[in-house]
C-alpha cells in the first residue's frame, strides 16, 4: 500500500493513466484530499466505482498523530508528532498580527551539527517523506481554524536542501491549484548553506523565497559555529545569494543568532556590513536562545545595543527579533530531545 500524499499531481496522473483511468482523475483526487480534507476514498463521489476500488486497494491517506502540544504565553504553539516508524518531529506555528507562520521540519534529526542547534544532537535518522512534510501543514491548518496558515518556512528540524527532492515535491503539492493552492512567495526555504543545492534551486525557476542561516560573516567563526562552512565557504554561498536575489527580485533573508563574545563584537558587525554590500537582503538579528546542551551565553543588552548601533551607522537594514516560545522549548528540536532523554531514563 502506498501513501497517496507522496505523489505530485503529475506523478499521480501518470500512475492512473497506466492503469487506464483518465488522467483528470488525479485532479479530482487532489481536490478531495487537499481542499476537502477527505481521508476515505469511498467518499470521492465524482470518481467511478472502479476507480474508488482501485484507490482503496492500492493506496492509503496518511495523517500525523499528535503526541504533545504546548502553547506559549506569546501565542506560539509547538507540536510533537509521531511518525509511523515511531520517530518524532516538531512543527511550530508562530502568530504575529494577521500572520500565522508555520515552521516545518524536513528530516528526523540533522547531519550538519550546527553548534547552537539541538536538532542534530542525536544525529541524522532519515529524510521525511513528502506526505510527512505535507501533513504538518494539513494538521496545523485544521487545528487553528478559524485562523489559517499565511506563511510557511522550511526551518524546523533538519536541513531542507539535504532532502531536496521531497521538499520540492511537497511545495509542488502545496502550490498546485488543484492541491492546497498556497502562494509560492509565501514559502521560504531556509538553509545552513549547501551552495550547490542553492544553485540548483536557483536554476529551477521555482520562485520561493530563500533564507540563509549565516551567524557570522567571518569564515573562521562561521566554521566554528557551523561545520558546513568548511565544505561550502562564504564566498560561494554569498555569490549564489546575490544571483538568487537578482533573479527573483526579492531579498534573501539572513538569520544571525547573536552569541555573547563569539559573533557579537565590533569586528563582527563591521564584517557583516561589508559582506552585505551590493546584496538585496533582509537580516534578522536574534539574541541566542539558551539550550542546556551548549556552553554559549546570551548577549547582554549592552552587547545587543553596541552591535546594532554599528549596523545602523553602516546603513545595514535589520530587524531585531526576540526568540519566540522560550517557555515551551520552541527552538528547533528541544521538545523532541526532551522526549528522547525521558525515554532513555525509563
Radius of gyration: 21 Å
Structural class: alpha/beta
For this structure, what is the CATH homologous superfamily of the largest domain? Answer: Aldolase class I
Q: Under the CATH scheme, which architecture of the largest domain would be assigned?
A: Alpha-Beta Barrel
Mean pLDDT across residues: 93
Question: What strand order characterises the main sheet?
Answer: 3-4-5-6-9-10-11-12-13-14
Largest sheet: 10 strands, mixed
How many alpha or pi helices? 12
General form: elongated
Low-confidence stretches: 336-346
CATH topology of the largest domain: TIM Barrel
Can you count the beta strands? 14
Q: Count up the domains.
A: 2
Strand content: 15-25%
Helix content: 25-40%
- Element string (H = helix, E = strand): EHHHEEEEEEEHEHEHEHHHEHEHEH
CATH class of the largest domain: Alpha Beta
The separation of the N and C termini measures 34 Å
Please provide a written account of the structure:
The longest helix has 15 residues, at 234-248. 37% of the residues lie in helices and 19% in strands. The strands form 3 sheets. A 10-stranded mixed sheet has the order 3-4-5-6-9-10-11-12-13-14. It has a two-stranded parallel ribbon with strand order 1-2. Strands 7-8 form a two-stranded antiparallel sheet. A hairpin with a 5-residue loop joins β3 and β4. With 346 residues, the chain is of the alpha/beta class. It contains 12 helices and 14 strands. It is elongated. Mean pLDDT is 93; it is low at 336-346. It folds into 2 domains: 2-60, DNA polymerase, domain 1 (Orthogonal Bundle), CATH 1.10.150.530; 65-345, Aldolase class I (TIM Barrel), CATH 3.20.20.
Amino acid at each position: 500500500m502506498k501513501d497517496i500524499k507522496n505523489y505530485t499531481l503529475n506523478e499521480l496522473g501518470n500512475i492512473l493513466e497506466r492503469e487506464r483511468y483518465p488522467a483528470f482523475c488525479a485532479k479530482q483526487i487532489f481536490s478531495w484530499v487537499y481542499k476537502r480534507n477527505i481521508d476515505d476514498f469511498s467518499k470521492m463521489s465524482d470518481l467511478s466505482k472502479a476507480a474508488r476500488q482501485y484507490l482503496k486497494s492500492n493506496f492509503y491517506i496518511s495523517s500525523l498523530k499528535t503526541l504533545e502540544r504546548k502553547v506559549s504565553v506569546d501565542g506560539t504553539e509547538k507540536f510533537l508528532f509521531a511518525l509511523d516508524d515511531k520517530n518524532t518531529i516538531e512543527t511550530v506555528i508562530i502568530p504575529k498580527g494577521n500572520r500565522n507562520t508555520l515552521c516545518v521540519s524536513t528530516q528526523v534529526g540533522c547531519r550538519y551539527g550546527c553548534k547552537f542547534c539541538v536538532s542534530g544532537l542525536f544525529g541524522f535518522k532519515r529524510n521525511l517523506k513528502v506526505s510527512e512534510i505535507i501533513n504538518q501543514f494539513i494538521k496545523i491548518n485544521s487545528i487553528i481554524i478559524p485562523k489559517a496558515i499565511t506563511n510557511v518556512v522550511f526551518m524546523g528540524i533538519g536541513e531542507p536542501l539535504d532532502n531536496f527532492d521531497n521538499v520540492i515535491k511537497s511545495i509542488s503539492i502545496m502550490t498546485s491549484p488543484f492541491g492546497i493552492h498556497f502562494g509560492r512567495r509565501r514559502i521560504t526555504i531556509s538553509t545552513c548553506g549547501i551552495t550547490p543545492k542553492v544553485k540548483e534551486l536557483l536554476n529551477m525557476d521555482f520562485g520561493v523565497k530563500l533564507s540563509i542561516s549565516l551567524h557570522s560573516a567571518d569564515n573562521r567563526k562561521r566554521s566554528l559555529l557551523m561545520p558546513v562552512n568548511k565544505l561550502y565557504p562564504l564566498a560561494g554561498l554569498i555569490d549564489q545569494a546575490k544571483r538568487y536575489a537578482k533573479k527573483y527580485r526579492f531579498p534573501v533573508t539572513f538569520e544571525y543568532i547573536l552569541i555573547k563574545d563569539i559573533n557579537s563584537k565590533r569586528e563582527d558587525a563591521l564584517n557583516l556590513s561589508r559582506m552585505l554590500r551590493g546584496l538585496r537582503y533582509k537580516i534578522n538579528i536574534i539574541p541566542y536562545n539558551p539550550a542546556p546542551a551548549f556552553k554559549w551565553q546570551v548577549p547582554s543588552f549592552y552587547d545587543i545595543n553596541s552591535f546594532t548601533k554599528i549596523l545602523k551607522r553602516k546603513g545595514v537594514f535589520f530587524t531585531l527579533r526576540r526568540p519566540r516560545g522560550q517557555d515551551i522549548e520552541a527552538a528547533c528540536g528541544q521538545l523532541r530531545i526532551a522526549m528522547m532523554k525521558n525515554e532513555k531514563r525509563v
